[in-house]
Task: structure prediction
Amino acid sequence: MKLASQIQSSIEILDQILLRHKPLPIAMKDWASNNRYAGVRDRATIINILNAALRQKISSSYVMDSEDARAIIIGSLIREFQFKISTLSKLFNNEKYAPKSLSENEFELLSSAKNRLSNANIFVKNDVPESTIDEYQRTFGDTLDAQLSFMSGMPDLDIRVNALKSNLDKVELALKKFHPIRTVCSPFGMRVKSGGLEYKFPNLEKTLSYAKGQIEIQNEGSQISAILSGAGPGMQVLDYCAGHGGKAAILSMLMKNSGQLYLNDIDQSRLINVPSRMKRLGVKNYQIINYQDSKNKLAQFFDIVFLDAPCSGSGTWRRKPDLKWKFNQEKLDNNLQDQKLILSEAKHAVKIGGKLIYVTCSLFDSENDQQIRNFLQNEKGFRLVNYQKQWPFGIKNMPTNAKNKHTETLLLSPMTNNTDGFFVAILERLE
Result:
């Protein structure tokens, strides 16, 4: 496919996403099934165009004075991929399979785009739901504009090297054709840099390294949150919201496959594929439980309770941009109630001197620091531990706090850390 036809296909797919509220993966799957001639590179380019369009949906609509798919695609090509108007004019040429030619009005709007956008509201310029600005303001303060602007760019792809089966040097050699670089803070992390319109991330799940369990696809922020748990050999650890077992796998690695790792999730169906994942990774010190059935027996039993709480996912919106346009206050309120309930339940499992690790992939103060402040007001038997004291001595660089005010909790952000957004609070049980 030529670029012009890839752009036209992107417009058609985005139209389905906007009008029929189709999730991006489903819309893309439907298109691919009807266009089997399209190759891997075609699909990669189209996905890149669509993700950019969704990341920058509001700003592109504002610049082009329209909310239709064509306008959003045009705006994102100009903004994210730095297309010149002359280049767009050649691609939008009304030929077969190509988009219709640019109108006189579109030319005029594109010519004044930069000036018009500079005068737009902050949520428009930075492509976030208007209702989230107060949350972001409480989190970032004076750095708000800079932090938000960074969230609309293309993210990189992070890898975790599984120390149970390999090491950085061996994996780096095995994956050298993908040009991985080592991450700044995680001693197990490697990164494949993103690279423009036609860039296709390597399918690392098809590599021998993945098949042998030597690597996982895992954002450095997720790795850092697990490292901050303080999990180590011989401990009793509970992953309270284990999901598909991604964090549990790194916790076991930190435990060097000793001690006991318990996996729980309120939705037990999420755990179905955990055994096959753990087998591939060489994880042996785990067991799947239903905490509610065993909570009396497991009261004050664990050295560490790791709580990766359900949340808005706002820290991952540049990677999953369609999710941010589905956000609303009702969903946030439900998350806040769930987090409060889970904290109140999970606390009982922590032994005296043990730690409760509260983690979200959110950048919202209400889901993070405010939730922890509320918890500590009601739970006098817990204290907050400064994340800097928990970071293992001599293990690469300590992560930098992205919040406007330095506190004992840690926030990672795309701008500050080049990771997804992650929040970590470390709570120690005193009595």
Observations:
- The chain has three domains: 3-119, 157-217, 221-429.
- Residues 3-119 form one domain.
- The chain has a mean pLDDT of 94.
- The longest helix spans residues 3-20.
